Amino acid sequence: MMSATVDRQELVRLAEEAGWRHQADDRVDVYVRGNARVRVIWRGDDVINGGSLFHDDIMTTYTRDFAAINRWLTAK
After folding, report:
1. Could you give the CA distance from residue 14 to residue 19 in angstroms, rounded to a whole number?
2. What are all long-range contacts of 10-15, with beta carbons under 8 Å and residues at least 24 apart?
3. The pLDDT value given to residue 44
4. pLDDT < 50 positions in the chain
5. What's the DSSP call for residue 76?
6. In whole angstroms, what is the distance from residue 42 CA to residue 53 CA?
7. Which DSSP letter does residue 2 get?
8. Under a CB-based contact definition with an 8 Å cutoff, are residues 49 and 64 in contact?
9. Burial status of residue 27 (CB atoms within 10 A of its CB: 0-12, 13-18, 19 or more)
10. Could you point out which of 1, 13, 24, 39 has its C-alpha 20 to 30 Å from the C-alpha of 73?
11. Given CA atoms 62, 66, 68, 69 in this order, what sign does their dihedral have?
C-alpha cells in the first residue's frame, strides 16, 4: 500500500489558494471547484489512504499517490 507523509493543513491551504472550497468530515476532506470535486481520505493528519477525482459527480480517477492529488488541487 502506497501512502505519502504530508501535512493535511498545508494541503488545505494550497488548495484554497488555487480556488478550491474545502469541507472536512473526520478522516475525509472534500474539495470543490466548479464541476470538479476531489475527495481525500486520511489516516491521521499526515498519511493519505487515497484520493478520488470527480467531474460532474462521475469518478474519473482514484489514486494513492499524494503527488497526483497535490497536482489536482494546486493546478489553476
Report:
1. 9
2. 11/40, 11/69, 11/70, 11/73, 14/70, 14/73, 14/74, 15/73, 15/74
3. 83
4. 1-3
5. -
6. 15
7. -
8. yes
9. middle
10. 1
11. positive
